[in-house]
């Protein structure tokens, strides 16, 4: 899919590289303004298997910091 490009800014995070992806999700390594690394996972809801979707499926930001 490659939805994002290297050095693209997404909500204050700079994309460094694509880690992996499949038909309905992609994972990227991004850094914040202080160069702290994070993972960004994008889901293409239109390609997701119906069993993974529910009425409450929405865009979410999850923080998994140290």
Verbal overview:
This protein is mostly beta strands and 66 residues long. It has strands at 9-10, 13-21, 25-31, 37-43. The chain has a four-stranded antiparallel sheet with strand order 1-2-3-4, with no helix packed on it. Strand 1 (9-10) and strand 2 (13-21) form a beta hairpin. The chain starts with 8 loop residues before the first strand and ends in a 23-residue tail after the last strand. The mean pLDDT is 83.
| Distance linking N and C termini | 30 Å
Q: What is the number of helical segments per DSSP (H or I, 4+ residues)? A: 0
Query: Major beta sheet, specifics?
Result: 4 strands, antiparallel
Helical fraction: under 10%
Proportion in β-strands: 35-45%
Provide the succession of SSEs. EEEE
Overall pLDDT confidence? 83
Coarse morphology: elongated
The tally of strands reads 4
- The structural class is mainly beta
User: If strands are numbered along the chain, what order do they take across the biggest sheet?
Assistant: 1-2-3-4
Give the uncertain stretches in residue-range form.
Answer: none
Gyration radius from CA atoms, angstroms: 13 Å
